[in-house]
1-deoxy-D-xylulose 5-phosphate reductoisomerase
Amino acid sequence: MVVTTNSAPASGVGRRRVTILGSTGSVGAQTVDLVARDPERFPVEALTANRNVALLADQAKRLHARLAVVADPSGHAELKERLAGTGIETAAGPQAVVEAAARPADWVMAAIVGFAGLEPTLAAIRRGAIVAFANKEVLVCAGAFMMEEVRAHGATLLPVDSEHSAIYQVFDFARPESVAKLILTASGGPFRSKDRAFMATATREQAVAHPTWDMGAKISVDSATLMNKGLELIEAHFLFDVPEERIDVLVHPQSVIHSLVEYVDGSVLAQLGTPDMRTPIAYALGWPARLATPAERLDLTKTATLTFEPPDPDRFPALRLTRAALQSGGGAPTILSAANEVAVQAFLDRKIGFLDIERIVEGTLTALPHRPLRDLDAVREADAEARRDAAARVPACGATAVGSR
Ligand SMILES: NC(=O)c1ccc[n+]([C@@H]2O[C@H](COP(=O)([O-])OP(=O)(O)OC[C@H]3O[C@@H](n4cnc5c(N)ncnc54)[C@H](OP(=O)(O)O)[C@@H]3O)[C@@H](O)[C@H]2O)c1
């Protein structure tokens, strides 16, 4: 049964109470800006952050949020001080983030990065909310389980990743058997035309300098390794119930075509736009209505050329690793995602070199058993075990770190 669908009542949306998980991040802050354009229509229940108390407090005041939550408890005193006299409630700690997601908002933006987003996203799903879904690691680490929860609680998942938003807009949910394949486009990242020798000495600054998108640090590094596209492949598999072998990846450096669906008759439908995350965020915020955004309009006469090339599996092994993890099934994608989070953080902390990321992910994925994941505890255990294994691999890579000395 397909649980995702783009069919919705023809009427537009009226007032919609919103919660933004990860409001201080790249996706979160862009969501705040869109919500702030129409505060009457989008009153705010809760905003959450990890540590960025100053921005969180500013956002909460600007949007007149009912609740502001900081996941790191050491930030609570400062948050209370900054919001004193405003009437805005405050809370702190990971459980408070979950409770924020459980409060009655019609629409929840899931924009926490990584595994930390799992339980808050689940809390929103279990209320049957409309969940705008940016936090792809959640579907990668617990895809089958999450989709079962969506089904059981009648929640609505609206993809926010530009690729999945594109597919969502052109996918025939009434006739899924007519879909031949999904084609995910990829910019190719900052190292698209670089060789392995260059990548071996690539710095943090070079890896996060994405050519077309302005994003958080983790997803920027994932784009440089192409792991981001691998995670998106797994996300697409769960969201659209399409097997891995019918999901292709196409490098398209201009990031104008956001993804495509090929049908059995040979028709290919695509969604296009300038590379601006406010467009897919607004699509989810207004769904099923469309909201006006300040995003630059697409002018194909100025775009001049659109180019395409296949991804290079030798320079970018991440796609092979993600396909292998999806084929292996069970906890393999959970292990892959957890090891990748540990390795990317170690690279951002300048403890390992860029190419060590793939070595650590492959090492952990090969070393650990891919057990079936029957429940949330099994997901947590697989994640924790993979983090321990990946962390143990970091010191041995230390000698190849760039910019650490
Ligand atoms: N950025 C994009 O354009 C884009 C596009 C498509 C999909 N995505 C996906 O969207 C998600 C967010 O990406 P992003 O680029 O917006 O990331 P980001 O800029 O790093 O922001 C992450 C957000 O999560 C919060 N956070 C981090 N660790 C947390 C924890 N342990 N507990 C609670 N909150 C925590 C951060 O709070 P602090 O600010 O306090 O650290 C911040 O609000 C990722 O899964 C990414 O793959 C992003």
Notes: The pocket of NAP is lined by residues 22-28, 49-52, 71, 97, 111-113, 116, 134-137, 161, 213, 215-219, 277 (CB under 6 Å). Residues 376-397 form the longest helix (22 residues). The mean pLDDT is 95.
